[in-house]
């Protein structure tokens, strides 16, 4: 069978196809169809010839097979240090073989590649730091994922996630109406405790345009309210766009290159329409990477920059604390051992390691902050990045992957973990549910709100 009804080489572009694929609980029919999916070798090789640039070709050719990347990979460490988990082996046995055979590979091989690409690598890019030749396996695995997606060999959940972006312009079924109504609802819910608070929608010329993760309006609307509270207390002139508010990119995890570009363009169009002085996004690592680090290149911006300065939430928060727009009541600072999870996507991939620690210096009593080991850009992936968190087919492998972060946290002796990233937050939550080590985890927003020194004029008036 060349292509199935659900598992095929065609992206999900309609609500009908999306609902049909969603209705296949757990992807049972989808994966059965995948077992019979033909490989279009001519198209695969043509795609490689068109898209594989000199950097990737050089990396494949110069790998010395020295094995120095092995210990850098947390998946190698937690899986018995078997050769099959060495980063260089993983890429040479998949992408390397596809190129060597000029795309003439079969279904069984492509399914092996799929399992390797999504259950043996999170694209955390840590191995690239330790390769003597500077080979970045994370970038190469991202490319491999794109080839697999183009042939229909992609996990069920990520085919759906990318389809959500195409149909709803968000990673979940949140319409423009849903989003605006959620903003109005959160403003109303918060107004009594924070008089005058607003969540302005489509305000032209604001100082800040705020974007978020679709999981927030869908499942955690309080996160939107918390962002609004901090902007309100800081006195910021801000807005959210009615369209182009979704900053995340499950299509990046899926390898849907075309959709990656569209996602970023949606956000950039909102910037061009509303003309803010700058933009900031929520506590999400991959959203920042997709929109700010990779995004400008996806949409062809020659300067490699978004239309306006676009900072991660930790940058805005550190600035607000540094300049006194937000002030902390010292008596309310955290006075228990606390550690910090470094997000791969804005710490290792953009170098914001010291920004999060500046925030820590304001909100944690001196002597109570405990670094993980290793830390900062050398820290390990949470165990669920790169889409790993959401793929049911590989849940057992993902749970094993969490053990590295579990050991790091246990070694700190801390019961509270600050995780300013959605994927990290999810992975650490799941870690506790799976292994019950007795920890708590939190984004930055709720912690900061609890310890704010709020100006008198912003407090509710006594009746």
From TrEMBL:
Q: Which residues form a coiled coil?
A: none
Tell me the ranges covered by the Cysteine-rich domain, including all copies: 338-424
Keyword terms, alphabetized: 4Fe-4S, Electron transport, Iron, Iron-sulfur, Metal-binding, Transport
| Short name of any one Pfam family annotated for the protein | Fer4_8
Top-level taxon of the source organism? Bacteria
Q: Outline the extent of the 4Fe-4S ferredoxin-type domain.
A: 60-135
Q: What is this protein called?
A: (Fe-S)-binding protein
């Amino acid at each position: 069978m060349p292509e199935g009804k659900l598992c095929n080489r065609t992206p999900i572009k309609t609500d009908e196809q999306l609902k049909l694929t969603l209705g296949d609980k757990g992807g049972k029919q989808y994966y059965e169809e995948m077992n019979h999916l033909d490989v279009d070798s001519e198209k695969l090789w043509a795609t490689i010839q068109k898209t594989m640039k000199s950097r990737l070709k050089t990396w494949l050719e110069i790998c010395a097979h020295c094995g120095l990347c092995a210990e850098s990979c947390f998946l190698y460490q937690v899986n018995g240090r078997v050769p099959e988990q060495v980063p260089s082996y993983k890429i040479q046995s998949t992408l390397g073989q596809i190129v060597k055979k000029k795309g003439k590979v079969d279904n069984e091989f492509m399914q092996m590649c799929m399992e390797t690409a999504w259950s043996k690598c999170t694209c955390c890019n840590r191995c690239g730091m330790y390769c003597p030749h500077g080979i970045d396996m994370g970038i190469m695995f991202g490319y491999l994922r794109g080839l697999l997606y183009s042939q229909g060999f992609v996990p069920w959940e990520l085919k759906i996630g990318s389809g959500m972006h195409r149909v709803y312009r968000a990673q979940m079924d949140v319409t423009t109406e849903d989003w605006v109504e959620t903003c109005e609802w959160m403003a109303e819910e918060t107004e009594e405790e924070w008089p005058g608070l607003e969540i302005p929608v489509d305000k032209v010329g604001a100082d800040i345009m705020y974007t978020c993760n679709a999981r927030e309006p869908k499942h955690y609307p309080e996160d939107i309210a918390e962002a609004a509270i901090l902007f309100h207390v800081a006195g910021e002139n801000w807005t959210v766009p009615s369209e182009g508010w979704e900053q995340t990119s499950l299509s990046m995890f899926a390898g849907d290159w075309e959709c990656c570009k569209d996602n970023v363009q949606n956000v950039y169009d909102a910037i061009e329409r509303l003309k803010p002085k700058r933009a900031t996004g929520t506590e999400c690592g991959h959203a920042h990477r997709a929109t700010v680090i990779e995004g400008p290149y996806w949409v062809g911006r020659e300067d490699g920059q978004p239309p306006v300065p676009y900072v991660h939430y930790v940058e805005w928060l550190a600035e607000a604390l540094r300049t006194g727009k937000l002030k902390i009541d010292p008596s309310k600072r955290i006075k228990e051992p606390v550690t910090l999870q470094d997000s791969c996507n804005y710490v290792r991939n953009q170098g914001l390691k010291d920004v999060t620690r500046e925030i820590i210096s304001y909100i944690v009593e001196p002597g109570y902050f405990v670094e993980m080991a290793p830390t900062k850009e050398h820290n390990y992936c949470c165990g669920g990045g790169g889409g790993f968190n959401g793929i049911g087919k590989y849940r057992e492998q993902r749970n094993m992957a969490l053990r590295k972060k579990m050991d790091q946290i246990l070694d700190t002796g801390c019961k509270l973990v600050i995780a300013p990233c959605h994927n990290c937050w999810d992975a650490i939550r799941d870690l506790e549910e799976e292994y019950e080590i007795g920890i708590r985890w939190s984004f930055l927003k709720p912690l900061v709100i609890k310890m704010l020194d709020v100006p008198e004029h912003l407090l509710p008036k006594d009746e």
